[in-house]
Amino acid sequence: MDFRTIVPIKNQSPKIDYEAKISLFGSCFVENIGDKLQYYKFRVIQNPFGIIFNPLALLQLFQRIDENYEYSEKDIFQLNNQCSCFDVHSQMNHSDRSEMIYNLNNTLASTRAFLQESSHVIITLGTSWGYILNSDNRLVANCHKVAQSNFSKKIFSAEEIKESLTEISKIIWKLNPKAKVIFTVSPVRHLKDGFVENQRSKANLISGLHSYREEMKLKFDKKTTYFPSYEIVMDELRDYRFYGKDMIHLSEIAIDYVWDKFKEAWIDAKVYPIMKEINTIQKGLSHRPFDETSPKHREFLDKLQLKIKKLQDKNPTIKF
């Protein structure tokens, strides 16, 4: 007897190998996949502007990338000795205004360059809810702890979600016609919005995304695909033991499970032996000895560096 339902995972292409370049954007869940790809030393750019939960806020960033936008003083505000920008996550904040403007423009340029060479673009949708800045009626990517009285909360419709994904895809393919776009919906619940509100939000994301993909099938059938991370967690791992202490974010076991499904669908089996070797090296690099100065530990490090050199000689794209 089988006591659970299994979400079928289709074999996908083009496969991810060590020649691939992967761009990842969106909610915190995309970082779970991105962290695994980085751990195994694939070439990755991951949320260069920080976590962006709402697809319409993500579209605004893609529009900045597309138009070669140049950030300036007008885009920056200061609060509690920190400079911030409503386009990006607070991880981009800086105490120095000039330095922050430089970082924003440098990140914009490097993201554009990486996108132009990316074989795969992974986008995870987090929420349909967004916050509108009352002073100029625009959607912000992050409120940066500005008083909530300055914003109006809005849920975006499935149609608005669909339109934003259409525009994001157009920009990606304008920059890079060969990129494969992988969409997924984050299984992380946004319970601060409320239980019912979270369900409404996910429903709009799912409906908008699949409506978009149905249209794409008529035009670009092989250029987009959907990875069912939301369904895997909701249907296969529907138990609180697969969540962290906050009962919202996924546990390490759940992340590993979803990663294994992603690996099965997307990673070229030919590179599994390389991934296994990298895992051994990573564990060696994270090892903390009792005595760092001992001859035995120095010998261990020398052997580890030799392993790294041999691996990199065979696979020049792998960097430690």
Show the helix and strand layout.
Layout: E1 21-26, H1 28-39, E2 43-46, H2 55-66, E3 77-79, E4 82-84, H3 97-117, E5 120-125, E6 129-133, E7 138-140, E8 151-155, H4 158-175, E9 180-185, H5 195-219, E10 224-226, H6 229-236, H7 252-266, H8 272-286, H9 295-314
Parallel strand pairs: 1-2, 1-5, 5-9, 9-10
Antiparallel strand pairs: 3-4, 6-7, 6-8
Helix pairs in contact: 2-4, 4-5, 8-9
EC number: 3.1.-.-
Domain GSCFA: 21-262
GO molecular function: hydrolase activity
Describe the structure.
The protein is of the alpha/beta class. It has 2 domains: 21-267, 3-Layer(aba) Sandwich (Rossmann fold); 269-320. Helices cover 46% and strands 14% of the residues. It has helices spanning 28-39, 55-66, 97-117, 158-175, 195-219, 229-236, 252-266, 272-286, 295-314, and strands spanning 21-26, 43-46, 77-79, 82-84, 120-125, 129-133, 138-140, 151-155, 180-185, 224-226. The strands form 3 sheets. It has a 5-stranded parallel sheet, sandwiched between helices. Strands 7-6-8 form a 3-stranded antiparallel sheet, with no helix packed on it. α1 links the parallel β1 and β2. The protein is globular, with a radius of gyration of 21 Å. The model has no long low-confidence stretch (mean pLDDT 94).
